[in-house]
Fold:
Amino acid sequence: MVPYGSRRFARMDSLPKGNAPDLVRLARRLFWWKSPEEALRWPGRLLAQVMTLGSWDDIQVARRHWSEEEFREVLRRPPPGVFDRRSWTYWHLMLGLEPVPPLPRRCLT
Structure:
């Protein structure tokens, strides 16, 4: 098992091209503790949040903005503490990343 502390999580440097208002709505709903502007500074984290907590409609919005390879990159280098076992397994199977590796753990020391 690879602890989170041993690698950086996927950080996309810019937002995908296209219509941003739908991404602002996603950020507002999925990052209730941050402003949408702050949440949108970390597109990889936003995508991970959609993959874990998003509704079907949220996922369709994300698929319009991010490629399948970008979804895979989030799984290869996940942000700490976002994925639960169910979403981790689901997205690995949906994206053909088998066998499903163990859910990453945070390394606090």
Remarks:
- The chain is about 50% helix and 0% strand.
- Helices lie at 21-30, 36-39, 43-53, 56-65, 68-76, 85-94.
- Residues 1-9 have pLDDT under 50 and may be disordered.
